[in-house]
Design brief:
Helix content: 40-55%
Strand order of the largest sheet: 3-1-2-5-4
Number of helices: 5
Radius of gyration: 16 Å
Largest sheet: 5 strands, antiparallel
Number of strands: 5
Structural class: alpha+beta
Strand content: 15-25%
Order of helices and strands: EEHHEHEEHH
């Protein structure tokens, strides 16, 4: 993230942090979705209007604007989770709830089928 990143609202009530290249790829995908109808246009409006360009300080910290902190209900302590091409920033309680659901699925017979395939 030395060269900067983009932070925006993400599904499930968390924030996503993207490197510029990944943000551009997501933006292109979302731009196509906006052509489907009014609801999709409103979704893209929220995604793009809330996105901010951030540059880490010398200690690697980023400032998260209040509107994004409010969206994700962030307090003094947050949870960071790396996922594929981005980092998610979570309210700790929300993260634990979602992770609990995911853990239960992972350890179920259905979860193993999803991971290992047919």
């Amino acid at each position: 993230m030395e060269g900067g990143a983009f932070v925006t609202e993400w599904p499930s009530g968390c924030l996503a942090v993207f490197a510029p290249e990944q943000f551009q790829q997501v933006a292109e995908s979302i731009k196509g979705v906006a052509q489907r109808g009014a609801t999709e246009r409103f979704m893209t409006l929220s995604f793009f209007s809330g996105a901010v360009d951030v540059v880490p300080d010398k200690q690697g910290r980023i400032a998260i604007p209040q509107h994004l902190r409010d969206y994700a209900q962030l307090g003094a302590d947050v949870m960071l989770a790396g996922l594929y091409d981005h980092i998610e920033i979570w309210n700790i309680e929300s993260f634990e709830t979602k992770r609990g659901v995911g853990t239960a699925m992972l350890h179920s017979d259905d979860g193993i089928a999803v991971i290992s395939g047919p």
